[in-house]
Design a protein that fits this description.
This protein is of the alpha+beta class and 355 residues long. It contains eight helices and 24 strands.
């Protein structure tokens, strides 16, 4: 095998026994690891565990690279470096696993696309830390650390890749205008402090911000006439500035609506994400499916979380192997686009098969 994917609870990943065992068992493989808000293996959701998925490609070349946040001016500059590095002929896919708190996923992708064609399948996810939002870990061939991005690229004519994403959230209330923001920090909606609006809708739940805001993400519609429809999740609050920090950019001048969860629609969205990924597989059955879902979905689904994994499995089929994790952000194209975007509160599925 060339690839070992390790997903696990943060504190467990800081122990060395599992890593040394993997290096001994698979000495020629590259080990990619990330902390999570829950681990997916087969049809199961696990917590407080470490999972390992070992992958062998027979005809496809795979290239790996780790990037450090501290080496770049910002996330966009790091994305440019990613795009520059992966200039391989016949590059078919790029999978990203980034720090979940120190990387701006929107700018990361913006930088990558300055150097890379939209014909390359880009997907992945941002590491998690249960619902603590304190720090996350990512690593390549070593114990994972904070502030890292690991990418691997698949090169060759034999690899077939599909991807799909779906949220299943319901928008409610009036459309509001972002009147003041900077990158992923939202200051004002319709001229009023953004935090005050959330407190109004959350009521008694506002004391548990930012965790409680995972139940009420924002739908980012873009400007008038746009068909953007991206979900944005809150990662933090500044009570002094009355602002909200999101997992992705919230551009000034865009329109937004509040959203709330519908359990059945959220679960069914996983089946739709699977169906979207299958449409890109040219009738072939995937051998591997990588599932990246959001910690916010896990919180709202509670004990029903495994049902969204079941729906994904049922839509793709029993002959595919499944692994993945619950994240602080997901990388995937929307249903109607080929360009990867930072998603929040979404089930994102990437499927692979060698022909």
């Amino acid at each position: 095998p060339q690839l070992v994917l390790i997903f696990g609870e943060k504190d467990r990943l800081l122990e060395s026994d599992y890593f040394e065992a993997m290096k001994e068992l698979f000495s020629d493989a590259n080990i990619v690891s990330a902390s999570t808000s829950g681990e997916i293996i087969g049809r199961q959701l696990l917590e407080d565990s470490i999972t390992a998925t070992v992958v062998e490609f027979e005809k496809t070349e795979i290239f790996f690279k780790e990037f450090s946040v501290s080496d770049y001016e910002d996330s966009k500059a790091m994305g440019v470096a990613v795009g520059n590095y992966f200039q391989f002929p016949k590059l078919k896919g790029l999978f990203l696993i980034s720090d979940g708190l120190l990387v701006n996923g929107s700018y990361l992708l913006e930088g990558i696309y300055e150097e890379m064609s939209e014909n390359v399948h880009i997907s992945g996810g941002m590491a998690g830390d249960q619902q603590s939002f304190e720090s996350t870990l990512v690593g390549l061939n070593k114990i994972p650390e904070s502030g890292k991005l690991v990418t691997f690229g698949l090169v060759g004519d034999s690899i077939l890749i599909g991807n799909g994403a779906k949220g299943g959230w319901d928008a409610f209330g009036p459309k509001r205008l972002i009147t003041k923001s900077k990158d992923n920090v939202l200051y004002e909606l319709d001229g009023e402090p953004a935090l005050d609006l959330y407190i109004k809708y959350l009521g008694s739940h506002a004391d548990n911000l930012p965790e409680s805001a995972l139940f009420f993400p924002l739908l980012l519609n873009g400007r008038e006439g746009d068909d953007k429809d991206l979900v944005r999740t809150i990662l933090g609050v500044d009570r002094d500035e009355r602002s909200l920090v999101f997992a992705g950019n919230v551009p000034e001048g865009d329109n937004v609506r509040l959203m709330k969860g519908n359990m059945n629609k959220i679960i069914n969205a996983s089946a739709i994400a699977g169906e979207i990924s299958l449409k890109k597989m040219k009738g072939e059955t995937p051998e591997l499916a990588l599932l990246v879902s959001c910690v916010g979905r896990k919180l709202i689904l509670g004990q029903m979380t495994e049902e969204e994994i079941e729906e994904a499995v049922n839509s793709i089929g029993e002959h595919t192997y499944y692994c993945g994790f619950y994240s602080y952000g997901e990388f995937s194209p929307n249903e109607k686009s080929v360009r990867c975007q930072l998603q929040n509160e979404t089930m994102c599925i990437t499927t692979f098969k060698e022909l």
